[in-house]
Amino acid sequence: MLLDKHHRQHGLQGNIGRFAVEVKGRLDACQLEQIINNDPIFCWLHSLRLKKQWPLQLPQWIQVQSSDPIFINIFEASQQDSCIPKELFKIDIQPHFDPLFQLNLIYFEQDQTILLFIWSHILMDSQGAEILVRHLGDAIGDKPIQLLASKNTKLSITEQLKQTRKTRNFIFFEKKSIFISFLERLDSRRINYYHSLCFTETETEQIIANCRRAGARFGRSPFLLAACMHSFSDLLKRKGRTNTALWVPVPQNNRKKGACGPLVGNHLSFLFYRLFPQHLETMQKTVDVIQQQMIDQMRKDIPASFSIMMDLLLRLPLWLYGEIVKSPTKGALASFFFSDTGKTLEDFNVFCGLPVSNAVHYPPNSSHPGFTIIFMNFQQRLQVIIAYTETAVNKEDISWFESSLRKNLFG
Amino acid sequence: MIATVSPSAIAEYICFFIRNNLVAGGIEVTPATPLEQLGLDSFSLIEIILFVERQYHLQLSDEALTQENIFSSETLANYIYQHLYEYKQTRAD
Description:
The complex is a heterodimer of chains A (411) and B (93).
Chain A: H1 2-9, E1 16-24, H2 29-37, H3 40-46, E2 48-50, E3 61-63, E4 72-76, E5 101-108, E6 112-120, H4 126-136, H5 157-173, E7 192-198, H6 201-213, H7 221-238, E8 246-253, E9 268-275, H8 283-299, H9 302-313, H10 318-326, E10 337-340, E11 350-351, E12 354-362, E13 371-378, E14 381-389, H11 395-410
Parallel strand pairs in A: 4-5, 10-13
Antiparallel strand pairs in A: 1-6, 1-12, 2-3, 5-6, 7-14, 8-9, 11-12, 13-14
Chain B: H1 7-21, H2 42-56, H3 73-92
Helix pairs in contact in B: 1-3
């Protein structure tokens, strides 16, 4: 909700995610509509709206009754089009008034279809959306879907305050205060753009081998983050800004691996990385520092405490909550956003009986910091989506960033 | 705790933790299964390390957490066993 508001304050759409599934062949829109309208999960999710609440009240969903069926928007791409029409990236969802997701089919001349699922992140995170879309295309086998998380044991208010204080001390005051080198804050051009990088299977293997060479012991993410940190820091230099420290919160999916749910809600913990210029001397050093910060935070149980703090702050008026969350970064939330969805799409081969040729997450973006990098695997290939606003960087910066990132990933 | 547990018992215990906390039901987890093959991310891998540390009252050094040692439940268990054995020897001396 905070991100939804933060984006709107900067003249953008709300906290809206997009998940695109590209198949070889034509998906049957009528058949899909029939499946959706006969599926209790889709019907229930479609009927939810965010309830307007008073301060100190917890946010709530309400169900609205509608006799209208859920429909799918259809687009016929022209001959020269090879990608998703731009207008679909401008669609907004107002969580208090609109259905929280919508489906679009884009037909291409070359016997290809893209299903674009657009949803409000207030309803679910990207992993939840992935599960829902795969459920629609009969692509998760016989696994049962878990709709909601089981209720956590309620902690006493004293314990919640204790955990909150611990996180607050960690984020705000530990050792050195946080200085962030901002990208530009305000500008009139507040449009999200996306830039994608796709690696071949061989290139992906090469990157994974480089992860190991750089000393990444806990999977690939620390290495991918290190590569982004280096390229981002160099981008700041290129733009004539002094990098005093980078602050990047990284979400971690809390679901059990291989599980189909929980679907509704955001099931993420966060780890926070604070890197100073001396940590960016070599890739190996950066990977080491990231891993050390990761272990230290988990030993101190920071991710769990952070979730408790967030739950507690939910009762505050949104503006106050926003002030608290943004205060360490003076309004930017992060130097940039980073996420690695991992290999959840590795086995995504068939959708509605048609072969899947690609699947991509397009993350929401905000104008401040206006720079988001998301890594994901599709089948055995690694791909990257960079979301940016021209407030932050321009196309030249992005192509420079891409070549820098490639250099860091390939060594 | 200086347990007289075997490496295979430690490995089974790690598998039990993974089955109960980190992967969905129905996913096969054996001591030899590479942890990466289970789709475990960095977060989960560190959770396993922290579970082991709490369980056996030890703190694994940074150097101990090599790619080889955390390849599977079995390799991790072997390392822990070795570590516990060395600790026991030191105490006996």
